[in-house]
């Protein structure tokens, strides 16, 4: 069994925060992109160069990349959920860095233990 007391304080903290995110918060594996477009209506301000801004969720569905429009009423929700994903990804990279350092130590120990 793996005991947490053998982990550094920073690794324990990263693992705890990651567990809270994964067990308690919704997350979307993607990123948010602001795009500008024209609507095509005659006389609209966008025909004079003042383009309409819209928020899109960029994500992968299978092997395809999708851009999904985010309605104004869901922008805050999308930002929170994508933010949770990005924080979880950052924390996983941090934990992986700690594990890699441990792996390197074990590798060096094994190298020195050879007959």
What does this structure look like?
The protein is α+β, with helices and mostly antiparallel strands and 115 residues long. It has one domain. 47% of the residues lie in helices and 22% in strands. The chain has 2 helices and 3 strands. Strands 1-2-3 form a 3-stranded antiparallel sheet, covered by helices on one side. A hairpin with a 2-residue loop joins strand 2 and strand 3 (64-70). Helix 1 (9-24) runs antiparallel to helix 2.
Name its key features:
115 residues, alpha+beta, 2 helices, three-stranded antiparallel sheet, single chain, elongated
Which helices and strands appear, and what pairs or packs with what?
Elements: H1 9-24, E1 30-37, E2 52-61, E3 64-70, H2 75-112
Antiparallel strand pairs: 1-2, 2-3
Helix pairs in contact: 1-2
User: Mind summarizing the main beta sheet?
Assistant: 3 strands, antiparallel
Order of helices and strands, N to C?
A: HEEEH
Structural class: alpha+beta
Number of helices: 2
- Measured between the Cα atoms of the first and last residue, the distance is 29 Å
**Approximate strand percentage:** 15-25%
Instruction: List segments where confidence is low: pLDDT < 50 over at least 5 consecutive residues.
Output: none
Which strands sit side by side, in order, in the main sheet?
1-2-3
DSSP helix fraction: 40-55%
Radius of gyration: 22 Å
What overall form do the CA principal axes indicate? elongated
| Strand tally | 3
Q: What is the residue-averaged pLDDT?
A: 89
Structurally, the number of domains stands at 1
């Amino acid at each position: 069994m793996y005991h947490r007391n053998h982990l550094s304080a920073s690794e324990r903290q990263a693992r705890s925060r990651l567990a809270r995110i994964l067990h308690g918060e919704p997350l979307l594996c993607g990123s948010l992109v602001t795009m500008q477009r024209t609507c095509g209506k005659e006389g609209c301000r966008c025909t004079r160069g003042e383009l309409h801004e819209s928020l899109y969720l960029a994500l992968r569905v299978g092997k395809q990349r999708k851009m999904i429009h985010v309605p104004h009423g869901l922008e805050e929700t999308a930002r929170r959920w994508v933010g949770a994903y990005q924080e979880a990804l950052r924390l996983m990279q941090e934990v992986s860095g700690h594990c890699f350092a441990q792996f390197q130590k074990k590798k060096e120990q094994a190298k020195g233990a050879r007959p």
